[in-house]
């Protein structure tokens, strides 16, 4: 993941991580914090969590950090430098930004939710990378993207897929 992020941002692109709101989003934030700490990705790289449910789940993780298998100290850094995207308007604005960033957004299989706005903006451009970090059920938009579809339907229109997909 670190290599994907470094390569993508070096070309002026952004990385989209479609993620399940509970569990996967928090695991990805932990990995991103570890990559920053290790110097694998830039410490000042903007990271956005764009999912109201994931934001609420993250608050629960932080509140109950002592119950987790990760050290409470490390869990307390989970959201360091992560910008929480609360409203739909903020999400739409985020999708239209042009500078390199990492966006974690639900849904994890790209079947609905705010991730669709990001996919619609990012898929047509070769500089971006979409990384699916979870299971993709057959027939879902995520599974079709992972399988190499050259275009997908989002909000009633076909969007060409030129971004890298992992």
pLDDT averaged over residues: 95
Return the string of H and E elements. HEHEHHEHEHEHEEE
User: What is the helix fraction of residues, given as a range?
Assistant: 25-40%
Strand order of the largest sheet: 3-2-4-1-5-8
* Global Rg: 15 Å
Report the β-strand fraction as a percent range.
15-25%
- Net shape: globular
Unreliable spans are: none
Report on the biggest sheet: 6 strands, parallel
What's the total number of strands? 8
Number of helices: 7
Overall SS class: alpha/beta
From the N-terminal CA to the C-terminal CA, the straight-line distance is: 10 Å
How would you describe the overall organization of this protein?
The protein has 166 residues and is α/β, with parallel strands linked by helices. The chain contains seven helices and eight strands. It has helices at 2-10, 24-38, 52-63, 72-75, 88-96, 115-122, 141-146; strands spanning 15-18, 47-50, 82-84, 102-105, 129-130, 151-154, 157-160, 164-165. The chain has a six-stranded parallel sheet with strand order 3-2-4-1-5-8, with helices on both faces. Helix 5 (88-96) packs parallel to helix 6 (115-122).
């Amino acid at each position: 993941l670190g290599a994907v992020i470094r390569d993508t941002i070096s070309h002026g692109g952004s990385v989209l991580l479609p993620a399940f709101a509970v569990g996967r989003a928090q695991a990805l934030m932990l990995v991103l914090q570890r990559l920053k700490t290790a110097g694998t990705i830039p410490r000042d790289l903007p990271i956005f969590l764009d999912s109201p449910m994931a934001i609420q789940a993250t608050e629960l993780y932080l509140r109950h950090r002592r119950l987790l298998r990760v050290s409470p100290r490390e869990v307390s850094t989970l959201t360091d430098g992560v910008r929480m995207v609360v409203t739909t308007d903020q999400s739409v604005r985020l999708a239209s930004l042009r500078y390199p960033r990492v966006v974690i957004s639900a849904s994890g299989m790209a079947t609905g939710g705010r991730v669709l706005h990001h996919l619609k903006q990012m898929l047509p451009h070769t500089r971006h990378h979409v990384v699916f970090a979870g299971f993709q059920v057959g027939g879902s938009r995520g599974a079709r993207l992972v399988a190499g579809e050259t275009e997908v339907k989002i909000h009633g229109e076909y969007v060409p897929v030129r971004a890298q997909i992992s």
